[in-house]
Write a structure and sequence with these properties.
The complex is a heterodimer of chains A (about 325) and B (about 350).
Chain A (H helix, E strand, L loop, with lengths): L12 H9 L5 H5 L3 H6 L7 H10 L8 H6 L10 E6 L5 H11 L12 E6 L6 H17 L11 H6 L1 E5 L3 H17 L3 E7 L12 H21 L3 E6 L1 E6 L9 E6 L2 H5 L4 E8 L2 E8 L7 E7 L2 E4 L15 E2 L6
Chain B lengths: L10 H9 L5 H5 L3 H8 L3 H17 L8 E2 H7 L4 E2 L4 H6 L4 E2 L3 E6 L5 H11 L12 E6 L4 H18 L12 E5 L3 H18 L2 E7 L1 H8 L5 H24 L4 E5 L1 E3 L6 H6 L8 H6 L8 E3 L2 H7 L2 E7 L13 E7 L6 E8 L2 E4 L3
Parallel strand pairs in B: 4-8, 4-11, 5-6, 5-7, 7-8
Antiparallel strand pairs in B: 2-3, 9-10, 11-12, 12-13, 13-14
The chains are: A alpha/beta (about 325), B alpha/beta (about 350).
Subcellular location (chain A): Nucleus
Keywords (chain A): ATP-binding, DNA damage, DNA repair, Nucleotide-binding, Nucleus
GO molecular function, one term (chain A): ATP-dependent DNA damage sensor activity
């Protein structure tokens, strides 16, 4: 009797799917759970208008680049969703990640989410010094606009100590971390941002079995989605780019090689928003390529010593070569 | 990967694992909970417990992974610092020097000054921390078999280096530099996986240099066949991961010297830029920003390798036909990408002491 599957019970279809989704498979599973646990297990539903109201309450995380915020729906990276940024090396993915880790801490009265951040570093690119630079610049900018003596001002030490960092060396570690993170998030309910830089690094190797890779990635996406919804946090993933050859059918047109986000087609479905970062005419560009509710647009941005910022076309070009290169001239003094 | 023997599990779970012939941690981690409960014939509650147990076990042995540290602690611990190049101007261009963790790539044409820079770093790494060193020796892995010449040049540099830094007068600098030659990919694999970890755990070494990373790969995978290229990609990935592991385990920077290769489609770039199709992210356009000097050369080993490294330093000579002495030969050093500093460049020259930034 106890091994009878849940699906064979005469329940309402919606309840049945919820039970299955929550991981209940046999009657035995149900017997082992108490009523309270059952009701906690999200067997309840909400209406669309309730969902809309809830979403309005969630304050997005600004990227410090107004154009990018606009592109992402007006105020920045949405909370409760997975946002993926893809880009070739050197496009500023890690910089954006660090900027978001700081910006998520902008307090409520300055229309920020006032949360904390987790940065999962797979590439070893999280540099505390650089994060400190960005934090200092952001704090200075915010303090300019607020009355001195305000208690809610951001404090450098607090900002830095609220960025939690974990270094991951292989995909098993990443999966294990996801299983443990649940507990960590319960202890730190104020975490509003989870950054993985980058999701691709460990999944682009060691896999002869592509089906296994897809399965693991799906499992990971499921965990991330669960975190995003249960703990109301923004999940920001960074993805690498890979080359795809476009073979030309015309004899007089050369074959072209294009950059495409790594991890394949099926992964592309996992994130809510996907943004590709690339160079065009020696300016950094960001293009929203996938979103359920936003228009596909392209915006310019730049990265300077303060962090991630809007692109200003009237930049002082003094000493600049191509591709944002700045010449360092040592003065004799 | 770990086995179950050392993990304490409920008897009925351990029994189920045994029955299902699960042997390693990966066997469990690579499956969804649903699949596990089917395969192991356990209730979902038991499966959850099993997964938690194993996740905890993996995490226990990895201090960098968990418990989560925070950025303030990282900042104050001083684990991430900059290794000086021994020249203030070059340090400024490079945003402080070489990052003391992760992989830094030095790329350039032949005779651009890559080896000179590496040898100089072998000396500066031995300086005290207050002066920008890391207080340790260096391992120099050479694929080019010119170790005798390297040693000779190092001796020359050491004499002048000691002259400048009194503090190192009585230290035997050359003893702290270990040279290893790896003539082919098999030896390279053996050295990196077996010899190097032992060497690093027995000596106080704070810098690993491999000169050059591309040489053996280019010989071993010299084909345009897709399956061979795929194999190459995989090996490159493994290599990159290995270096990152070494870097984190022994807390040292890994420097990879890279060669350049020709960008074949350079002539087509103009056409591509004229292409106004915004949905197309051209690979060639991306590569164009990597061009070395005035030539049409790009770092070897492709985009995949570029994804593996943390920062890239590019050295180039303006005009190779002008065999200049001193000032006439214009050399530039560019920090192409780094997580800690913007893209910057400047001019430098090489003399008997080593490399120096140019004062305008």
């Amino acid at each position: 009797m106890s091994t009878r599957p849940v699906s064979s019970l005469s329940l309402r279809p919606s309840t049945r799917t919820k039970l299955i989704k929550a991981g209940f498979q046999t009657i035995k599973d149900l017997q082992e759970t108490t009523l309270i646990e059952l009701s906690k297990d999200k067997v309840t539903s909400i209406s669309a208008s309730e969902a809309l109201q809830q979403e309005r309450k969630l304050c997005p995380i600004s990227t410090s680049c107004e154009a990018m915020d606009q592109m992402l729906g007006g105020r920045g990276v949405p909370i409760g969703k997975i946002t993926e940024f893809c880009g070739a090396p050197g496009m500023g993915k890690t910089q954006l990640g660090m900027q978001l880790c700081v910006n998520v801490q902008i307090p409520h009265n300055l229309s920020g989410p006032g949360g904390e951040a987790i940065f999962i570093d797979t590439e070893g690119s999280f540099i505390a010094h650089r994060a400190a630079e960005i934090a200092k610049a952001t704090i200075t900018k915010l303090n300019e606009n607020t009355v001195a003596g305000d208690d809610s001002l951001m404090n450098f030490e607090n900002v830095m100590s609220r960025i939690y960092v974990s270094k991951v060396h292989n995909c098993d570690e990443l999966i294990a971390l996801m299983k443990i993170l649940d507990e960590f998030l319960q202890e730190h309910p104020n975490v509003k941002l989870l950054v993985i830089d980058s999701i691709a690094f460990h999944f682009r190797q060691q896999f002869d079995d592509m089906a296994l890779r897809t399965r693991l990635l799906n499992g990971l996406a499921q965990d991330l989605n669960k975190f995003a919804q249960t703990y109301e946090l923004a999940v920001v993933l960074f993805n690498q780019m890979t080359t795809k050859f476009k073979l030309s059918r015309d004899y007089n047109v050369k074959d072209q090689a294009a950059l495409v986000p790594a991890l394949g087609e099926s992964w592309g479905h996992q994130c809510t928003n996907r943004i590709v970062l690339y160079w065009r005419n020696e300016v950094r560009c960001a293009q929203l390529v996938k979103s359920p509710n936003l228009q596909e647009t392209t915006v310019h941005y730049q990265i300077n010593s303060d962090g991630f910022r809007d692109y200003l076309s009237n930049l002082n070009n003094n000493g600049k070569r191509r591709w944002e290169e700045e010449k360092i001239i040592q003065d004799n003094t | 990967m770990e086995e179950f023997k050392n993990i304490e599990l409920r008897p009925r779970i351990a029994e189920a694992l045994k029955d299902a012939k699960f042997e390693t941690v990966s066997d469990v981690m690579h499956r969804s909970e649903k699949e596990l409960s089917k395969k192991l014939k356990l209730s979902s509650k038991d499966v959850k417990e099993l997964v938690q147990c194993i996740a905890l076990e993996i995490i226990k042995t990895r201090p960098l992974l968990f418990p989560l540290t925070n950025a303030l602690k990282m900042l104050n611990s001083g684990e991430q610092r900059m290794l000086t190049t021994g020249d203030a101007i070059i340090d400024k261009i490079l945003g402080g020097g070489i990052m003391s963790c992760g992989i830094t790539e030095i790329v350039g044409e032949s005779s651009a000054g890559k080896t000179q820079m590496c040898l100089q770093l072998c000396l500066t790494v031995q300086m005290p921390i207050e002066l920008g060193g890391l207080e340790g020796g260096a391992v120099y892995i050479s694929t080019e078999g010119n170790v005798q010449m390297l040693i000779k040049r190092t001796q020359q540099m050491i004499r002048l280096f000691k002259h400048r830094h009194d503090i190192l007068k009585d230290v035997n600098l050359s003893d702290e530099i270990k040279y290893i030659t790896v003539p082919d990919l098999d030896t390279q694999y053996q050295v990196l996986h077996l010899q190097l970890p032992i060497l690093l755990s027995r000596n106080k070494i704070r810098l690993v240099i491999i000169d050059s990373i591309a040489a053996n790969f280019r010989v071993a995978y010299n084909s345009s066949d897709v399956s061979i290229l795929r194999q190459r990609s995989k090996e490159l990935c493994k290599l990159g991961t290995k270096f990152k592991e070494i870097s984190d385990q022994f807390r040292l920077p890994v420097i990879c010297v890279n060669q350049v290769s020709d960008l074949f489609s350079k002539n087509d770039i103009r056409e591509f830029i004229g292409n106004k199709d915004d949905n197309f992210w051209e690979y060639d356009y991306y590569q164009r920003q990597l061009l070395v000097g005035k030539g049409s050369k790009i770092p070897a080993l492709g985009l995949l390798w570029s994804n593996m490294i943390n920062s890239r330093i590019m050295l180039s000579r303006a005009d190779r036909t002008l065999i200049g002495i001193g000032d006439k030969c214009q050399r530039t050093i560019t920090l192409m990408m780094a997580p800690y500093a913007p893209r910057q460049w400047g001019e430098f020259y090489i003399d008997i002491e080593g490399i120096h930034g140019k004062v305008n």
